[in-house]
Amino acid sequence: xxxxxxxxxxxxxxxxxxxxxxxxxxxxxxxxxxxxxxxxxxxxxxxxxxxxxxxxxxxxxxxxxxxxxxxxxxxxxxxxxxxxxxxxxxxxxxxxxxxxxxxxxxxxxxxxxxxxxxxxxxxxxxxxxxxxxxxxxxxxxxxxxxxxxxxxxxxxxxxxxxxxxxxxxxxxxxxxxxxxxxxxxxxxxxxxxxxxxxxxxxxxxxxxxxxxxxxxxxxxxxxxxxxxxxxxxxxxxxxxxxxxxxxxxxxxxxxxxxxxxxxxxxxxxxxxxxxxxxxxxxxxxxxxx
Length: 289
Fold this sequence. Notes:
It holds the Pfam family Glyco_hydro_25. Keywords: Glycosidase, Hydrolase. This is Lysozyme. By secondary structure, this protein is an alpha/beta fold. The protein has a single domain (60-288), classed as TIM Barrel, CATH 3.20.20.80. The chain has eight helices and nine strands. Helix 6 (192-210) links the parallel strand 5 (175-177) and strand 6. The longest helix is centred in the first third of the chain and has 24 residues, at 17-40. The radius of gyration is 23 Å and the shape is globular. The chain starts with 16 loop residues before the first helix and ends with a helix. 40% of the residues are buried.
């Protein structure tokens, strides 16, 4: 807002060049800092509908797939013949009948713990402990919002609210859910290099907090579009890939094989269905670190 001038007109005095630069610095620097702070302090913004954001909730809409469970019909192809059945759940699944899932052959489960740096799954304790009490190997995952705060901030929040790892032989390393933005631009307004750096920031911090390399959940199409098909993480972070059909399909750059395949976005009696790419003792090895 322009300042109102009162009193008699003032004379315009000449300003030295050095003085002008100093004045401009005083005016411009706070604006620049405010803009930067605004980008990182976006963490204070709560996600509008975290209960509708779960592992793969945006995949079918962007990439297709009817969500039918191939286990109920044709056998899915991809990975080993000894693949272990798993499930993933979030708050929209509510109270889960873990004993029923266990009897149906499910042997591992991932549960949504957090989103951004403000949301915690209100059913997390029930779901996470329920899977464990049903004698499943369990793990937690974080729904990433890269435009809300830094990767490090979200990794710390995740590790502090359910995503930590314990050496009990039945806890899987935490998983980072990287998929299409449910609130706006698919790549969260980030350049490809900025997205790769954000993911690296998350992974680095998560490892420092837990001692484990996080699993990454992402689709090949999203990875190509939003990271430029980076091959940076294939040697360190196990790949969990969604593809709703009868085969895994092509993998993102850097990974020679997948660790988990989410082959359907629905299941009976509840949850998305997954297959661990190996025998049960290899799943135990992943849990043991």
